[in-house]
């Protein structure tokens, strides 16, 4: 008995083959006439319905946070584009952040139901997706011929395919200057020297909302700014002395921001009016026994202020880890609205851009904001002598309706004392 005949008789269903008597030839046997009872084998095709794979679904706008009702759509994909499961198809820009909309499954986008820049609300249809259609497009070109030329059962025992011949001559290399760039990567035409051109770019919702809030702050708050300067010598020395051990112990770098955040929390607990807010509806002052500090972070889309919560209970390591995590989310456009809601006080660090001096604007509905600036060597009087010290100007802008000058100056001097000598925190002074 031929080995193929035995296989067919033993496992007819498993192999998907059946026997018959259509022909007396077995191409796999040395004697073609020896497999009289088998003849030609037939292939049983097992099919599964592809309806669920080619289904066209409509993807709707996901729900927003309670404080957000609508947003503008910015498309990352176009009609006909293949997408993988969870690949971002569009972003919805809201007043506070951007919400990414991923594809629910692999497939091809068949229709965009909202124009680029169009306004949507939660539940509105966004686009149509044909599931499974992207699978064929995702097969590498090198694998397509192999799939198309799948061996038949009669060809299973044949030898391995021959190795492709090695070219006797290396392909002719082209000089870089001879390679023409593709149209997609073509550089824009250079603007003639002295040309007076203009371009217009629509303001995104986040930028519009920032502009609106800043203008509201100017119209609502009686803003006043007070200044002071901080000698950064001690904090720089502390950082230099302990940065390696801090990194080894907490797996994060020790920066200056944690010192100012902790100093602000210490000063806010000492001066509760700076941590409070006026409720214009009820005409009441709301005092908080907790400290949630918003840290301003610049992103390509605008200024965002993620919140570090319960700073009064944190140490330097906790603050550095939280700031690093929020900054990473902001750079990757992953901040959620919940990350920016609330906040009782704001710190803006213009020093990272080299700012020497400035007056920050209050972040409503808060009552005060601290502005940090660059560290520069300046001559200062120390013990009756002039010395060069690394100095930073700091500014506190506050709502004079709630915070008096005495509280504002005391608050800023408290920050100065903590940053210049962090031992003040240990002594609770």
Automatic annotation (TrEMBL):
**Cofactor (UniProt):** (R)-lipoate
Q: What class of enzyme is it?
A: transferase
Q: Which UniProt keywords apply?
A: Acyltransferase, Lipoyl, Mitochondrion, Nucleus, Transferase, Transit peptide, Tricarboxylic acid cycle
Q: What is its EC number?
A: 2.3.1.61
Pathway noted in the entry: Amino-acid degradation; L-lysine degradation via saccharopine pathway; glutaryl-CoA from L-lysine: step 6/6
Question: Does this entry carry the keyword Nucleus?
Answer: yes
Q: Where in the cell is it found?
A: Mitochondrion matrix; Nucleus
- On the tree of life, the source organism's domain of life is Eukaryota
Q: What is its main location?
A: mitochondrion
**Protein's UniProt keywords contain Acyltransferase:** yes
- Family that this chain belongs to: Belongs to the 2-oxoacid dehydrogenase family.
What protein does this entry describe?
Dihydrolipoyllysine-residue succinyltransferase component of 2-oxoglutarate dehydrogenase complex, mitochondrial
Source organism of the structure: Salvelinus namaycush (Lake trout)
